[in-house]
Amino acid sequence: MTSDNSPGRTLYGRTQPVQQLDAAVKEGMFALMSEFYEVEKTSFLADLERKNTVILLEDGQKNLRGFTSVAIYDLSVGKDEFRVLFSGDTIIHPDFWGSLELPRVWGRFMYETLQASGEKPLYWFLISSGYRTYRFLPAYFNEFFPCFDRETPAAMQNILDLAARQLFAEDYNPDTGIVRLKNPTPLRAGISEPAQERLQNQHIAFFLQKNPGHDAGDELACITRLSWENFKPFVKRLLKG
Fold first, then answer.
1. Residue 127, class by beta-carbon neighbours within 10 Å (0-12 exposed, 13-18 middle, 19+ buried)?
2. Backbone phi, then psi, for 14, in 5-degree steps?
3. Model pTM above 0.85
4. Is residue 2 in a domain?
5. How many separate domains does the chain show?
């Protein structure tokens, strides 16, 4: 994000239930998504209807500059019940890369969902076809999976596999951890190619090795426990601010 603090260069985030979105907002979301991803409108709208909530990011003139969609599921492994917060389509216009508005609003949404879950464990499940999405994990959480420097614990792998099968059925390959959608949405060529120096980042290098088909729209299934203890210090500061 630029250092210009004019209204057009500042993002303002808000949450809204999907069922309350009007046609104009949905059209704006699709237009923004299709500018950077190869996506079919029918598939995009159908996927949106399967979500509960969206976080909308707008500039000072109320122009849509980014969004992420969210669904919440209750699942169980044996007698253990837990809740999964799933992130769907997520995009921020490149002019606003680096803005902290999405992590601020998203963090508050996660924390409110965590509080509402009570004693039921809450996990964030996401799929990533780009390294920028995967980088949310090491940036905001102490522990997440898969990760370059540790094996995924069996209990966490079971939850990851269950969530992935619940949402994607046969499109998910548990042997590779990859979701290969029937209607993938790859980034358009040249939008987010990692610079050579970024390839030295161990998290980015791991993602590219783990998901070699990312440029064709393959998605890496990822998971982290949502808890106060698992948030990085700066996320806690955002939530308290």
1. buried
2. -150, 150
3. yes
4. no
5. 1
Task: Please work out, in degrees rounded to the nearest 5, the angle formed at the alpha carbon of residue 51 by the alpha carbons of 104 and 212.
Answer: 80
Contact residues for 108 (Cβ-Cβ < 8 A; gap 6+): 239
Q: Is the pLDDT of residue 46 over 80?
A: yes
Q: Where are the beta strands (DSSP E) in 3-96?
A: 12-17, 53-58, 64-77, 80-92
Residue corresponding to tokens 């004693």: 119
Instruction: Give me the domain span that covers residue 113.
Output: 7-240
- At a CB cut-off of 8 Å and minimum separation 6, what does 191 contact? 36, 94
Query: 131-182 pLDDT, tens per residue?
Result: 888 999 999 999 999 999 999 999 999 999 999 999 999 999 999 999 999 8
- Decide if 59 contacts 10 (C-beta within 8 A): yes
Compute the C-alpha angle 158/159/165, nearest 5°.
90
3-state SS track over 162-178? HHHHHHHHHHEECCCCE
Token pair recorded at residue 13: 């985030």
- Token pair for residue 226? 């949502």
Residue 39 falls inside a structural domain? yes
In a domain, 120, yes or no: yes
Which of 64, 62, 27 lies closest to 48 in space, CA to CA? 27
Query: Domain of 34: which CATH number?
Result: 3.40.630.30
**Separation between Cα atoms, residue 37 and residue 60, nearest integer Å:** 25
Cα separation, 202 vs 18, in Å, equals: 36
| Local structure of 69: helix, strand or coil | strand
